Amino acid sequence: xxxxKGLFGxxxxxxxxxxxxxxxxxxxxxxxxxxxxxxxxxxxxDAKGKAEDVVLGFDQxxxxxxxxxxxxxxxxxxxxxxxxxxFALDGVDYQLDVNDNGNNLHSHAELxxxxxxxxxxxxxxxxxxxxxxxxxxxFPGNKKVQVTYSLNEENELKLEYRASSDQRTILNLTNHxxxxxxxxxxxxxxxxxxxxxxxxxxxTAAGSxxxxxxxxxxxxxxxxxxxxxxxxxxxxxxxxxxLAGGYDHNWLIDGWDGEMRHFATVKAPKSGRIMKAYTTLxxxxxxxxxxxxxxxxxxxxxxxxxxxxxxxxxxxPDAIHHDGFVPCVFGGPDGDYTSATVYRFEV
Length: 347
Known about the structure:
Order of helices and strands: EEEEEEEEEEEEEEEEEEEEHEEEEEEEEE
Structural class: mainly beta
Helix content: under 10%
Mean pLDDT: 97
Number of strands: 29
CATH architecture: Distorted Sandwich
Radius of gyration: 19 Å
Low-confidence stretches: none
CATH class: Mainly Beta
Strand order of the largest sheet: 11-12-13-14-29-23-22-17-20
CATH topology: Beta-galactosidase, Chain A, domain 5
Oligomer: single chain
Shape: globular
């Protein structure tokens, strides 16, 4: 199907922001914008065939100029946290923006990729967003980055990333969409059920920086190897959950080898919607929306604590400081960064 393009609104610098619409013949529709390469809306049919928007966000383009929860956005050059907001690479020390309890979160609140206007190229029921990023935000290397969104007849929204750099640098890209499979603004996700293909996770200290340990989920509230309700143990008397205000942790995907793997299934009990998630990446950050600020979203819906959940595919947070984590240094002689993630919808 032909991709539709329209005007979405104005960016924070007064620039025109476009909206691109992908559709399939099953009633599924994805609306994407070139500002932040953001997923604005994602309409998915329920068990009765009624399509509803299942991602949190805003109807007005201008509101994405703030977007403190990073609704729907591509995060880069580094998603998640780097301890101490600094790192050393190839004998050079690099200082990052200190924006999260002495650490660095999502690269930079204003200069990160979620606040950039990307170039767009329309393909076969796909849109490729591209940008060039010189050595900004404290990260070395002149970088070229692109992400392609495509929608097929199997109700799969696929995200394919590629990035190059003229020198070695940290590249760890993700998408920060918040899903509520009952519909955006339909209350909390506590009754959603979740399965993760993960027997291990990375515990954190205060500030959500990994300790370097890789721990078993067995016998803890972190165990989603059997499908369970998100809210069943989210407020348990468990140190990791207390430190993060609920689930906001990195899980290691079982059997990771760089190939596409099914790593998560989410079910919504009322609508009957099911989302199966696949990735080529080694980890996923499951975030239960513990710190979504009370605000008005699309159709004036009330968003707040735990009104959406994220499955952010990634390399482990703070990997640059932990030899036991899969490294996320690319560029120069190390070659390009590539990854793919798929969200498949069923009932």
